[in-house]
Amino acid sequence: MNDYIEKSFDEHSAPVISAPDTTVDAREVFGIDRDWQIPAFSLKDDRVPDLDEGYVFDPDTTAAILAGFAHDRRVMVQGYHGTGKSTHIEQVAARLNWPCIRINLDAHISRIDLIGRDAIVLKNGLQKTEFKEGLLPWALQHPVALVFDEYDAGRPDVMFVIQRVLEQQGKLTLLDQNRVIRPDPNFRLFATANTVGLGDTSGLYHGTQAINQGQMDRWNIVVGLNYLPEETELDIVKTKNPDTSDEVLKKMIQLADLTRQGFINGDISTVMSPRTVITWAQNNAIFDNLPMSFRLSFLNKCDEEERTLIAEYYQRVFGEDLPESAAFRK
Fold it and tell me: 275-314: string of b/e by CB count within 10 Å (b at 16+)?
């Protein structure tokens, strides 16, 4: 079990409040045009995500996530990578002071990681075998939001374990322990996915699996999150890079949009997310060299065979060729 999961079991980090004891106004805090009072915690523990004051919320996605927190709905956020699916959930949780745990369902996460395993422990100077709960039973018994990232990449044996708890108040049976775990009333479950459970029909996301439709049917809300409009992305990037001119930032975003369209069309395999644009602008503030910082922030991460096309994107936006060397002069 990896260190991140182990951290979740530190008894000294247990939530300081066992249930929401206050509310936040959805219109005032999230800009949602609804008269919603969302349950929240007045105090935060170390599992509450860090607050990003400048975060810009997508209204539909935010409304879906808030419904998950307020009404215990199982919410899946679907979209291309780099759209900020997981961050969206975390930033809602941060404003609610709701403890939040993320786990990436990659090939290294097994059924044992989720359920638990027998482990040898030392008590009173003697070794004994003791069952150590996995992430899922632990989270079920606490007022936390559990987020499964890359949900459509999960192994089949893992997915069938998760299916048991997708029902509201769904119980988890630990056969080895002869225990039935009832979820905490304030346990919440979210997921992010690149597809909607149909597998890699586009050829963009190798390794994703088709999800059992009986399981997909148990997700109460599925919302799509696309790339941000240019004006919104400009506001976000400007917040992180106030000293960069709007003209330069707009061109950076235009170039990012070209990579996204190229990615969707299958022309390139790497895409510039809003985070990449922010990094590019920050690196440019360090090096004061736009093409060099572009190479260091994005181009060097790309497949060599695709760099020529990406260089064409650069030339199209900035009206000049991208120098071939990373060690060039201004």
Answer: ebbbbbbebbeeeebbbbbbbbbbbeebeeebbeebbebb
The mean pLDDT of 8-25, rounded to a whole number, is 69
Residue 271 main-chain phi, psi, to 5 deg: -125, 150
Our CA angle for 214, 92, 153, nearest 5°, is: 35
* CA dihedral (164, 195, 154, 4) positive or negative: negative
pLDDT, averaged across the chain? 84
Q: What is the pLDDT of residues 307-329, one digit of tens each?
A: 999 999 999 999 999 987 654 44
Q: Given pLDDT bands bounded at 50, 70 and 90, which one contains residue 239?
A: confident
Structure tokens at 185: 């009333």
Length of the chain: 330
CB count, 10 Å around CB of 212?
14
Domain boundaries, the chain: 3-224, 230-318
CATH number for the domain formed by residue range(s) 3-224: 3.40.50.300
| This model's pTM is above 0.85 | no
